[in-house]
Amino acid sequence: MALMSLFTRRVDNTPPETTAPPREPEAPKAIMRFLTQGGAPVDLRPARFTTRFDYRGAPYAADKPYEIDGFNWHCTGCTSYGREGDTYNDPGYRSLEEARTKANAHAEKCRSVVLPNQASA
Q1: pTM of the shown model
Q2: What value, to the nearest 5°, has the Cα angle with vertex 116 and ends 83 and 36?
Q3: What is the pLDDT of residue 51?
Q4: Where is this region: Disordered (predicted)?
Q5: For residue 120, is pLDDT > 60?
Q6: CA atoms within 13 A on the CB side of 85
Q7: Spatial distance between the Cα atoms of 72 and 80, rounded to a whole number of angstroms
C-alpha cells in the first residue's frame, strides 16, 4: 500500500505566477524605407536627440546641450546609421531632406543583405 501513494498524482490548482518583463519603449515607426543593393532595408525614422549645436547648426556651438526633434536612418544590413556634423557627432539630422538624401545615398552604395537574426525585425 505504501507504493500506491508514491505513484499517485497530485493536483495543484494554484495558477503559476507570471511576471511580465519590463517593456522597452517602442522605436518610432519608419517614415521612409530604402533598399540596399543586397535588399536590406535602410529605415528613416523620427528621432529626438541631444545636440551641442545652436539653431544655425554646425559648427556653431550652443551655450549648453539641448534636445531637439529630428530624423535618423539605420541600415539593417551593415548596421550603419546616420549622424549630422563631425564636430560634435550629433546622433541625428535636423532636416528631413538631408536625412533622406543621406539614407538614399547609403542604400545606393551598400551591398549588405538582411542579417539572419534581423529577418523578422
Answers
A1: 0.67
A2: 45
A3: 81
A4: 1-27
A5: no
A6: 19
A7: 11
Question: Which residue do the cell numbers 528621432 mark?
Answer: 47
- The C-alpha cell that represents 24 in the structure block: 522597452
pLDDT in tens, 82-107: 887 655 667 788 889 999 999 999 99
Q: Is the peptide bond before 59 cis (omega within 30 degrees of 0)?
A: yes
Contacts 24+ apart (CB under 8 A), 33-37: 34/103, 34/104, 34/106, 34/107, 35/107, 36/75, 36/77, 36/78, 36/106, 36/107, 36/110, 36/111, 36/112, 36/113, 37/107, 37/108, 37/109, 37/110, 37/111
